[in-house]
Design a protein that fits this description.
four-stranded antiparallel sheet; about 20% helix; about 20% strand
Length: about 80
């Protein structure tokens, strides 16, 4: 389980050019809150250890979006494989 997460309205997360809509995401609205974890996965519930992942990417573009567009603090110093 990840240690840090931050909630965002889905409209902010979906602004990422590489966002893909999966089965969990398609049932959620723009104003619904999803949580970005420190492993850069997006989940609906940050407390549940086996929460279903709405979106996940390991690309530099996603890391940059999280760090610079969202201001997500857990990205600093992160590299692939962290």
């Amino acid at each position: 389980m990840s240690g840090y997460s931050k909630g965002y309205p889905l409209r902010e997360l979906r602004a990422f050019d590489g966002w893909t809509t999966g089965p969990l995401d398609s049932s959620l609205g723009e104003d619904d809150i999803a949580y970005l974890r420190d492993d850069l996965a997006v989940v609906r519930d940050p407390v549940v250890a086996d929460a279903a992942v709405i979106f996940s990417s390991t690309t530099a573009q996603w890391r940059d979006f999280c760090a610079f567009t969202l201001g997500f603090p857990a990205v600093e110093g992160r590299t692939d494989g962290d």
